[in-house]
Amino acid sequence: xxxxTSSSHGGASDTSRRQRGGKHGASKSSASWLKExxxxxxxxxxxxxxxxxxxxxxxxxxxxxxxxxxxGMSVIDLGAAPGGWSQVAADRVGSEGLVIASDILEMDxxxxxxxxxxxxxxxxVLEAILTILDGRPVDLVMSDMAPNMSGMSAIDQPxxxxxxxxxxxxxxxxxxxxxxxxxxxFQGEGFDAYLKELRSSFTRVVTRKPEAxxxxxxxxxxxxEGFRG
Length: 229
Hints:
Elements: H1 14-19, H2 23-27, H3 30-39, H4 41-49, H5 55-66, E1 74-78, H6 84-93, E2 98-103, E3 113-117, H7 123-133, E4 138-143, H8 153-174, E5 175-186, H9 191-201, E6 202-208, E7 219-227
Parallel strand pairs: 1-2, 1-4, 2-3, 4-5
Antiparallel strand pairs: 5-7, 6-7
Helix pairs in contact: 5-6, 8-9
């Protein structure tokens, strides 16, 4: 698979996003962003429930609606740090399941999760994932990856689409027939073409916008089920 090192990604948390110079830092003072962040009910709920990020509630809502997980499943979580999605996945698949998480950022160890730190645009990360799988078919590939946001859509959107295209490429290589793919995608140039590409490989594709996804954000989650293999 041809790869470029021109893009990077971070994890699912708002803290990670702020570290990557996201739109909050570009459009607001740090103080006002922090106030919004800590006043956020999903942030507060994550502290009470022991989740590592508010992003956990996006995945919990998606699982409640679409029944993403079953015990014993094999799951790949891309853009995983600080581990909010991996926590949910590991709990749902149980001790017989497998969760492989990857991010360019560090992530503290999680029980039941194999973590690979590295830039997903580099071939070595794919090779490490395949090594851990050791031929085991994957039931679900999840991507919450995002590029380092500059605040300029002409730069950010192509980079974001490049990352989800790489995630789809990995899904096509690793998913079992009938498997599922879940990806955060930013609406804009390339979105419709990506949707069409998903529909060519999966029997069902739906768009989701969980409550924990901020209304002003262009992010949506595309769930593709029934991989044709």
